[in-house]
Amino acid sequence: MKKxxxxxxxxxxxxxxLVSRHGILEDLLPVRNRCETLLGYSSTCDPTILTGELPCxxxxxxxxxxxxxxxxxxSLGKWSFLPQRIAGHHRVRNRVSRHLAxxxxxxxxxxxxxxxxKHLPLLDYTEKKDIYEPGGIIGGQDTIFEHWRxxxxxxxxxxxxxxxxxxxxxxxxxxxxxxxxxLYLFTAGLDATMHRYGPHAPExxxxxxxxxxxxxxxxxxxSKQYHDVxxxxxxxxxxxxxxxxxxxxxxxxxxxxxxxxxxxxxxxxTMARFWFHSEKVREDAMRWLGxxxxxxxxxxxxxxxxxxxxxxxxxxxLFYLLPSGSLFVPSFMNMGFVKGMHxxxxxxxDSAASWLATHETRGVKELKDIFPVMKDAAAN
Length: 380
Ligand SMILES: [Zn+2]
What we know:
Blueprint: E1 2-11, H1 16-22, E2 31-35, H2 42-51, H3 55-58, E3 64-66, H4 84-87, H5 90-103, E4 123-125, H6 144-151, E5 155-157, H7 164-177, E6 182-187, H8 189-197, H9 202-225, E7 226-234, E8 240-241, E9 244-246, H10 248-253, E10 263-267, E11 271-276, H11 279-291, E12 296-297, H12 300-305, E13 318-321, E14 326-328, E15 340-341, E16 353-357, H13 370-379
Parallel strand pairs: 1-6, 1-7, 5-6, 9-14
Antiparallel strand pairs: 2-16, 3-4, 7-16, 8-15, 10-11, 11-13, 12-13
Bound molecules: zinc ion.
């Protein structure tokens, strides 16, 4: 019988509010606390989990940015004539995204979402490489998997391209053979369910039940092969129920500013990021944004506190953020209403991530604390 296995289970969007409200896996995972998240999305948080560094260090924050000299999407401008209801349709987008990722040799998660074709030639995409593979982090940091590889211990990681059922089956299989001592299980099914139905819908609750059951099964299977089974379950952020739609992007578009000439903007689902081409536009825009009741302009100090201040402004010169439970409809990310969303201020209750474990480890108070625990596991 093998000695010990450390399973690190990533559950996208399974936030602390949800975990405490439903008492998820309270008996199996008695070590549990709120884990502070970061401003941004999984694209911001996941590289921090994998490297232990803040966004300003690993370089990842959001997917779309203002292009430098040449945009990889230059050729897409010719499709600008398509009405957005066709061009923004998810089936069209998925197909074009797959084709483009292949052509541009992107190995990371790539999705055009609903970014208008006419704006794409002025934009660039940040996650070009698979962040789970060596060389995938923009800042050049090693991820935990390079450390695991170097430790010489047998390890495995699931493929984020696959669904939860397949990844769970693969993890159970490896544990039932006693093949691994370090395991990173990737799951994103709860995130998808909660976006679709909302975090408090019966579908989400059924999802939590199923998920908890899977973790129990995993533990039971591992316990037959190892006498020390350590499970660490964590998320990147939480999920808020969306109760309000903001049509601010449409209102902004009626202003006399012209995209490309006066400014560039990216409308994420809960945050708008701007680059201005003149001081006059910046002043007028800031005045207008300051008058809108929808959300607020983030100060550089706030970005800095969250580890998301980039001195070169590569992710924007000005950030405008909605309050928890509000969503830009439409945005560059979605054309319609979505019932669950994340990407609000980290201090909001529904934003917090969670940390649950079978055993005490060094403390995990924020996302970057997960990495040292994963590193310790390889050393022990
Ligand atoms: Zn999500």
